[in-house]
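To: structure subgroup
Subject: Chain for Friday's discussion

All,

I'm putting the inputs and outputs inline so they're searchable in the archive.
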Amino acid sequence: MERVHYVYLALAVAFNVSAYMIFKAISPKPREITWAVLFASGLALGGMNTYFFTQALRGISLATAYPIFAGTSISLVVLCSGLLFGEKIGTTDILGAAAIVVGIVILTR
């Protein structure tokens, strides 16, 4: 297993989280051309996420890659939603994200 596969996995996470940040940002906006362009950009980021995830799977087992991908994405979405959109991040959110990280560590050992 080469480190490059973990770089691919990190890129997949970054593209995934970026796509969801775009979707959140445009959700309250009127459905016009700017919205459509941003929506298409979010879909393109989702496509890049899928591409890099499949590249990561060339060197990382699915049983390892998916928990890392999903857990890291969830934790970053919680963090970014608070930082970028002012969503409340409570104790439950922090504990939940921490539990996910602990679960990833246990699953990948």
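Points worth raising on Friday:
The helical segments are 3-26, 33-56, 62-85, 91-107.
The mean pLDDT is 93.

D.
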